[in-house]
């Protein structure tokens, strides 16, 4: 496939942080294909299987977790990248890796670690994604981290836009391997970011209804989905409701993807290089104003009805307590940690506290619960509410 002039070309990659002098060629892969494969084969990626998406440690087999969510984002992102003539492998790598920095229990876990590190610079899951891939997950003999290309690291750092006030973790990594944090990222990164929104806007509907947290009639009356629902009922009268809802979600994804592609193609008129993309001063991958406004309103609805549901807030409170108690235990008794983490424990602050947070952030939901039970002799009740 011929790349568009504004795409990221793997043949023009800025390279990797560490030289690969003794690297063995393993097949005719581009630099971005190798990045994608390194991410897929990493321990950090596998751990996403047991990390919270919407619901903590769900008992049901059909609820999404960070891993399945990341796969869904990658599927949507790759479709968009192909239509726009972007590098699909870089787009897929960014989509697959974008949530690797999430600790157990999702945003509740992030809040707990941020509070625990309030004297050591705080915790941010986006920065921790870079820290994990560049320093912590280290399967290679020659260097720390996965040694991904500059474009992949840049995209992960800036997929939500320029970072004008990076936290300590991202600042350290940027100092070691400058990521030009004050500019916008590539189109591939921008596509991955909005594919994330498309995925969870729609797939969280499915999980919210399955859990009984969303009221069906209230959902279907919302302006962002009401028109598509009317069309589904017109086309498939008498079909079981669960199949109609699945069709609604597919249709809604298609509407958002088509709108994004059309608006982005209009925004790219006259853009002739990836350098112009970075210097544009605004994201060029975007929804139309009408869809963007509707999507924001729908997000507010989902926060009110699902993410901030009273039962969800109570579960998040319990989850924060679990991680706070784990952090406290490891801070007082480092021998409770795994041996390899004890052996590499820094002697001084703030590195010592950050090391403990690295250990906790790498846990899955169920491992964090198990560690808490081993230390405190009890399993926290009410952590899984579905």
TrEMBL record:
<dbReference type="InterPro" id="IPR006261">
    <property type="entry name" value="dGTPase"/>
</dbReference>
<keyword id="KW-0378">Hydrolase</keyword>
<protein>
    <recommendedName>
        <fullName>Deoxyguanosinetriphosphate triphosphohydrolase-like protein</fullName>
    </recommendedName>
</protein>
<comment type="similarity">
    <text>Belongs to the dGTPase family. Type 2 subfamily.</text>
</comment>
<feature type="domain" description="HD">
    <location>
        <begin position="66"/>
        <end position="201"/>
    </location>
</feature>
<dbReference type="Pfam" id="PF13286">
    <property type="entry name" value="HD_assoc"/>
</dbReference>
<dbReference type="Pfam" id="PF01966">
    <property type="entry name" value="HD"/>
</dbReference>
<dbReference type="InterPro" id="IPR003607">
    <property type="entry name" value="HD/PDEase_dom"/>
</dbReference>
<dbReference type="InterPro" id="IPR026875">
    <property type="entry name" value="PHydrolase_assoc_dom"/>
</dbReference>
<dbReference type="InterPro" id="IPR023023">
    <property type="entry name" value="dNTPase_2"/>
</dbReference>
<dbReference type="InterPro" id="IPR050135">
    <property type="entry name" value="dGTPase-like"/>
</dbReference>
<dbReference type="InterPro" id="IPR006674">
    <property type="entry name" value="HD_domain"/>
</dbReference>
